Amino acid sequence: MLIESMTRQASIELLKRARVARLGYVHDGQPYIVPMLFAYNVDYLYSFSTEGQKIAWMRADPRVCVEVDDLVTSQEWETVIVLGRFEELPPTEENETLISYAHALIQRRPVWWEPGFVKTIVDGKERPLETLYFRIRIDQISGRRGTPG
Ligand SMILES: Cc1cc2nc3c(=O)[nH]c(=O)nc-3n(C[C@H](O)[C@H](O)[C@H](O)COP(=O)(O)OP(=O)(O)OC[C@H]3O[C@@H](n4cnc5c(N)ncnc54)[C@H](O)[C@@H]3O)c2cc1C
User: Is 23 helix (H, G, I), strand (E, B) or coil?
Assistant: First the structure.
């Protein structure tokens, strides 16, 4: 088996086609990871959420890490790691165009509204459903590819 670096373009291609990403961030020194859906476009990953721990914690510390992978076998795979910054897109007049753009971009993904925007019951209580758009500015990107042989 051989492991090689991927070019920036090949890494971006994986970001574009990945079904699920892992979003990592830190709160008071505690690392934390959640599965998320993103849509890539020119140096940004767009997504949406409802209010919750993840948003509160990224507001407090916007440094994040996103991992995506395409695991075919233990010898044939691609993984990409992005280091970046959380940028909230609050529903202001100023952000209107950007939010419509983010919405259109995310909407291209199959069942894009789930599970980011679906009835969620935690400890017997229903979470409020208020959509919030955000994006991750990509500061650094690296990719590795494993091939058999
Ligand atoms: C394939 C996939 C795609 C997803 N895409 C999106 C998306 O685009 N947008 C989006 O907002 N959410 C998405 N989710 C859901 C996301 O992973 C979180 O569960 C959700 O956003 C709630 O996070 P929160 O921090 O607001 O949790 P809160 O409701 O505030 O709850 C925080 C508590 O719940 C626990 N918790 C939260 N999420 C999970 C989890 N997934 N597994 C185990 N424990 C958990 C935490 O440990 C913490 O104790 C996706 C999940 C999957 C599986």
Answer: strand
Give pLDDT, residue 144: 98
Atom 3, ligand 1: residue with shortest CA distance? 36
CATH topology of domain 2-147: Pnp Oxidase; Chain A (2.30.110)
109 pLDDT above the threshold of 90: no
* pLDDT for residue 117 is more than 70: no
Distance CA 122, CA 127 (A): 7
Which residue stretches of the chain are H helix?
Answer: 8-17, 53-60, 96-107
22-52 pLDDT per residue, tens: 999 999 999 999 999 899 999 999 998 988 8
* Domain residue spans of the chain: 2-147
Q: Is the CB of 135 under 6 A from ligand 1?
A: no
Euclidean distance between CA atoms 102 and 134, whole angstroms: 8
Residue nearest to atom 10 of ligand 1 (CA): 116
Neighbours of 93 (CB within 10 A): 6
Kind of pairing between the strands at 63-71 and 77-89: antiparallel
